[in-house]
Specification:
- This protein is globular.
- Strands 3, 4, 5, 6, 9, 10 and 11 form a seven-stranded mixed beta sheet that branches. Strands 1-2 form a two-stranded antiparallel ribbon.
- It has helices at about 5-15, 20-25, 30-45, 60-85, 100-105, 110-120, 135-140, 170-180, 185-190, 200-210, 225-235, 245-250, 280-295; strands spanning about 50, 55-60, 95-100, 120-125, 145, 155-170, 195, 220, 240-245, 255-260, 265-275.
- The chain has about 300 residues and is α/β, with parallel strands linked by helices.
- The termini are far apart.
- It folds into three domains: about 5-60, Winged helix-like DNA-binding domain superfamily/Winged helix DNA-binding domain (Arc Repressor Mutant, subunit A, Orthogonal Bundle), CATH 1.10.10.10; about 65-155 and about 275-295, Periplasmic binding protein-like II (D-Maltodextrin-Binding Protein, domain 2, 3-Layer(aba) Sandwich); about 165-270, D-Maltodextrin-Binding Protein, domain 2, CATH 3.40.190.10.
- Helix content is about 45%, strand content about 20%.
- One of its GO terms (molecular function) is DNA-binding transcription factor activity.
Amino acid sequence: MTLQNKQCQAFLAVLQYGSFEVAAQKLCISASAVSLRVQSLEKSLAQILILRERPCRATAIGLELAQHLQQMQRIEESFLYQLAAKQQQQNFYSVRIASHADSLATWLLPALSPILTAQKLLLDIQIKDQTQTHQLLESGQVNACISTETQAMQGCVAVKLGILRYRLVASPAFAQKWFAHGVKRQSLQSAPAIIFDRHDQMHRELLQQQFGLFANSYPYHHIPSAHEFLNSIVYGFGYGLVPELQMQDYIQRGELIYLAEDSIQPIDLVLYWHHWKQQAPILQTLSQALQQQAQAYLRPIKQK
């Protein structure tokens, strides 16, 4: 039994884009051709590989096959990169990383700067919530990811990077209007909050755990941009959780203030760098450099 390249390409494309139609557009073939190739692959393996849902997702066997194919791709990429490096020193290597928006907006790019300027690397960054980035790694769509997931999946390594600390802040005018008598359960039921998107659970968990408030019991905006999220708080649209790294200048200038600093504890997001055990030498160098550079930006993780 031999795996056919075109069938495998179609299978991986459907998993990556979650749709036969979008996969067909990316492969420049018809949706029926994609479907036929996936069906032929399933028939040759005598296994159902893809659940035809919206979006499409892999079965357990399909996930194993995707991981195998992605591993073969990484080995091939590594070989071609090393071969090209010997033939032509000007070739670049593309590295695919999944990150949440706040790391990208604060520390990730400065931490990557030394290795990117020293090596011929091109970044391909995908943004997902920190609880979901490892899913992109699992499906083989990225080489590595920044995640809050503590356990490495099979074939991968998870390394502690550090802590990204968040604090609840607002503009002085907003705080005076909505929290003049303190940040209390009643005032939180009326004051509009700023939440990144529907996958962001930090704000919801904070209000639920410390004030017994559920998401349907207070008003909130969704602002799915790290930069505009911060701006919306500065403009007085609402209050929200912001990384310390992102707001220090605003605090110093008096444009933002901490809310109930003595009673509301900061939220510490422990970040991990997940990557495949088998990876190109250049990616090993990047992983080592990132782990070292992250220490300059993130809070250290206390040893238990």
